[in-house]
Structure formats: C-alpha cells, structure tokens
Amino acid sequence: MSPSVPLKTLNNGATIPELALGLWETTNAECSRVVEDALDVGYRHFDSAQHYGNEKGASEGIAKWLSEDPANRRREDIFYTTKITEVNHGYEKAKASIKESLKKAESIKYIDLVLIHSPMSNREKRLETWKALQEAVNEGTVKSIGVSNYAIPHLKELLEWEGLTIKPVINQVEINPWLTRKEIVDFCHAHGMEVEAYCPLTRCKKFDDPIVVKLSKTYGKTPAQILIKWSLQKGFIALPKTTHKERMASNLDVYDFTISSEDMNELTHDSEYQVICDWDPTVYRG
Length: 286
Known about the structure:
Layout: E1 7-9, E2 15-17, E3 21-22, H1 28-41, E4 45-47, H2 55-67, E5 79-84, H3 91-104, E6 111-116, H4 123-139, E7 142-148, H5 152-159, E8 170-174, H6 182-190, E9 194-198, H7 210-219, H8 223-233, E10 237-239, H9 245-252, H10 261-267
Parallel strand pairs: 3-4, 4-5, 5-6, 6-7, 7-8, 8-9, 9-10
Antiparallel strand pairs: 1-2
Helix pairs in contact: 1-2, 1-9, 3-4, 7-8
C-alpha cells in the first residue's frame, strides 16, 4: 500500500487505506484517467458503485497503471470498492449484479469490497442480498463485504439475522462536522465495523464557515484539508472526490499536521444534522 496513507485493519483481517478517492459523478469515459492520475499522486483506494456507471473505467485505470511497472506495482496494494444498487437487491438479482460487477473488474481479477449501497428495499431483499454477498466471499471473488447508508435498525436487522455468517466490515455514510451521526458511529465501532465518511468536503458548501476559515489560517491548510483531517482524526475512512490531479495531491497532503483537541471540539457539531447530499437513506424504514 502507499506509504503516505496509513492502513486500517478490518474485522476480517484485511487492510484498507484510510483515505480514498470517491468516484461519484465521474463518467466511465474519464474514470480511467482519473484513477491513473490518483495512483500517480499516491492514492491506493478507490470507491465506485454500480449506480455510478464507472466500474469498468475505474478497473481499467487500475489495470493500466499496474501494467506500466509490473515489477514494482502490485494488485494487492490497491483497494477497490463497488456497491450493489437498490434495484439489484434480492438473492437472484444480487448474484447476477455481483457477476456483472466482477466482469467489469476482470482486468483487476477481484473486488476488494462490495457494499449494499443503501437499505432502500425491504428486509427480505436486504438479507437475500447479504446471502449473495456471503457466497461471493466464500467463492473468493470478493474479499470483503459491508453496507452503506445503514442506520442502527438496519444494522441490527443484519447482525441479528440467523443466516449471518460474515459480519459487515464497514458502514459507509455521509459524515461531516455538521453531520456526525454519533449514535450510528458508536454502534458500528461497538460491533467491530469501520465507518467510511462520504461527502467529507460538504461539496465545498462549508469552506467559508468561520471556524473552517479560522482553522485554515491557523494550520496553513486549505478548507478541504481541514475537513479531511477532521474525518481522519475522528477515526473515519475519508472519501473525498475530485477529478483534478492537483486537488487529488492536495487532499492527500494531510499528514504533516494535527488539529488540536480544542480545535476539533470547536469544529465538531454533534447537535446539528446538516445533510449535504440529495438523499438520506439512513431514515428509510421499509
């Protein structure tokens, strides 16, 4: 793995870089280039999804980069994630969609992590999807499995299911200093699950927040770097998104400073609930 990005160990023993490049809204046509650029600057973790429509481009970008220096670049040093979209929930649909995602990733041989993208179907379909994911792990084509946008009721439903043989390694949810989801985070950590924070940069909407501006001046860092560092110091796996190589490098340049505990407390707003993205599936109770 990239020496510049520390690794976390998941509950199945696999390791994952704590900083990734999110690929949401990156077209399939440009995804290969974006991934290659990110690998050049030091990223080793990429977050795709069936819904994004760029699984093939992401995989091909990884494969191309590896092929340029096979003696020194290894597949096992890259962590690639995709997610099963809601329309593919259910045992048969999930199995078929996993097979299709694997076909799109055939250039990199296997998928490191597959998540259920959201709980937005129903109990039967969610659990059937997990059954299909467990089978994929047992077959060796998928290394780890987890969930995304799961609230505590969805997590309990899965953890208490009699058919559970493989626990989720991760819950990926929208998290930022104004959407800390403390209850979900505490539940995940109590049950051995890591938490991935998507949209950690708040789509730039909080870059002019007075506290962020103040901390940027204090530490000589950009607002994006302050928000990424907040996620990392909170123990999250952060998934910032950009398609610009210079910003990729800047977002990775967060390991030469530490936000003080006082400043972390000032930046953290546990009592607020500011959803930046267009959806919040954690509130879904179907």
